[in-house]
Amino acid sequence: MNSRKENQNDNETLISKEQKFPVFLNVYDMLPRGKITDLGYMIGVGVFHSGVEVLNKEYNFGGHEYDSTGVFYMNPKLGPPNVRFKESFLIGYTSMDKEEIKNVIDELSMEWRGNSYNLLSRNCNHFSSELCSRLVGKPAPNWINRAARLGTFFPCILESSWIMNSMVVVPEPQSTYYSKETVKTK
């Protein structure tokens, strides 16, 4: 009887070590529906915001004027103000445990400062791709940031103030700027 209980405990330990957490990319439309948006979709270009959902929280990046983190989290699929949820994609499964996931987010929250936001070269989609890469080993799909890549080829069509100050994010009341103290692992 003792050996059966030991086997059960061994199996539970094995399962918990192999537990994998899903990582989703949640994508939002930043433009209202209409003919221009529809045309953009037809040619493969849209203007999107994205966040990464893991452990029932969605992590996002937005700009502000302070030298503090631009990483914030909220309930999944809500998005920041003035965006519309489009779709969610399973990027993969992370084999990291909850503490390791928290450590990755801690590191990124230090690297992704609010005052480092740039519409073309360091935006929410760049952050989402980096977080997906660190958690799952593969980045977010390239199409989520196609508009920014096109903008780097034709910066003259964008006002310079848009590029540097375009996404000052004021998270909704249900979201929180990330800090080591605000996220607890359970």
From TrEMBL:
Coiled coil: none annotated. InterPro entries: PPPDE_dom, PPPDE_sf. Keywords: Hydrolase, Protease. GO terms for biological process: protein deubiquitination; proteolysis. Residues 21-162 form the PPPDE domain. GO terms for molecular function: deubiquitinase activity. The keyword Protease applies. Pfam families: Peptidase_C97. It comes from the Eukaryota. Belongs to the DeSI family. This is PPPDE domain-containing protein. It comes from Diversispora epigaea.
